[in-house]
Amino acid sequence: MIPHFSDMEDKFYYSDDFLVGDRYWRLGFNPKSGSALPIYLYAQGFRPDAVATNTWGAVNLRLKNQRSTNHRERYSAAWYPIRSDNGVGVNSIISLADLHDASKGYLVNDAIIFEAEMVKVTVTNIVSV
Fold this sequence. Notes:
129 residues, Apoptosis, Tumor Necrosis Factor Receptor Associated Protein 2, Chain A, five-stranded antiparallel sheet, three-stranded antiparallel sheet, 46% strand, MATH domain-containing protein, TRAF-like, MATH/TRAF_dom
């Protein structure tokens, strides 16, 4: 949940890291990046006992409708290198006009809710022969 949405600046904001598989992930977005709201998935570091390797991440990125089940969802999938500086996702999960339309139910009490449903996480293991 992102509270105080209207007070946010024109910059990127990031979720706390969350662990899926051996890798940490986080969401990022800029609330004032143009005429639409983007959302991206970032691959972060690895668990301490994990082998660092390229990772395939497939995710359903979701903006929750807080008044119905009419959520906005976009699928994104990509290879994330061991060191990842760029997020992969969608440039528009919803137009800012629709987001700010109170009758639509996405921005409620000045808060929005993002979800990331990790559909698949795959790693590449290199084996010496």
